[in-house]
Amino acid sequence: MPQHGTFHWNELTSRDVERDKRFYQDTIGWTFVSMPMDRGDTYWCAIHDGKPVAGIFPLTSPEFDGVPEGWMPYLAVDDVDARVAKAVKAGAQLMRPIFDVPDVGRIAILKQPGGAGIGWMTPVGM
């Protein structure tokens, strides 16, 4: 069970998903399971020792032009809506509206006051 305030998930944002899947498969031994996304793309869940350990998010839509490739960490939080309200008051910027991913949780993408990106999520069952 995830605990509030701890890192819960890591996601690679990628413009070349197949390249990145090959890299992590060849170097780390990850396998991948596809998960269709609402916008028509495929999200890739990395599996290690039978457990999901990370994801690869494709940056194929024009809305992601200018978004750099890189790793996005996600913190587990007890109430993403209430915590985001506090974060915005403290100087963070909500990058897109808070959204739900079925069977995963409620997610916010923030830019903290110094400019670094961070995901916060209330995982299902937390």
Short structural summary:
With 126 residues, this protein is α+β, with helices and mostly antiparallel strands.
Following the backbone from N to C, one meets helices and strands in this order, namely EHEEEEHEEEE
Radius of gyration, whole Å: 15 Å
Strand percentage lies at 35-45%
Structural class: alpha+beta
Profile the largest sheet. 9 strands, mixed
**Helix share bin:** 10-25%
Mean pLDDT: 94
In CATH, the architecture is Roll
CATH topology: 2,3-Dihydroxybiphenyl 1,2-Dioxygenase, domain 1
Counting structural domains, the number is 1
Task: Determine the number of helices (DSSP H or I, runs of at least 4 residues).
Answer: 2
Describe the protein in words.
There is one protein chain. β2 (31-36) and β3 form a beta hairpin. The chain starts with 6 loop residues before the first strand and ends with a strand. It has a single domain, classed as 2,3-Dihydroxybiphenyl 1,2-Dioxygenase, domain 1 (Roll), CATH 3.10.180. The chain is an alpha+beta fold and 126 residues long. It is built from 2 helices and 9 strands; from the N terminus they run βαββββαββββ. The protein has helices at 17-27, 80-89, and strands spanning 7-14, 31-36, 42-48, 51-58, 70-76, 93-94, 99-101, 105-111, 117-123. Pfam families: Glyoxalase. This is Glyoxalase.
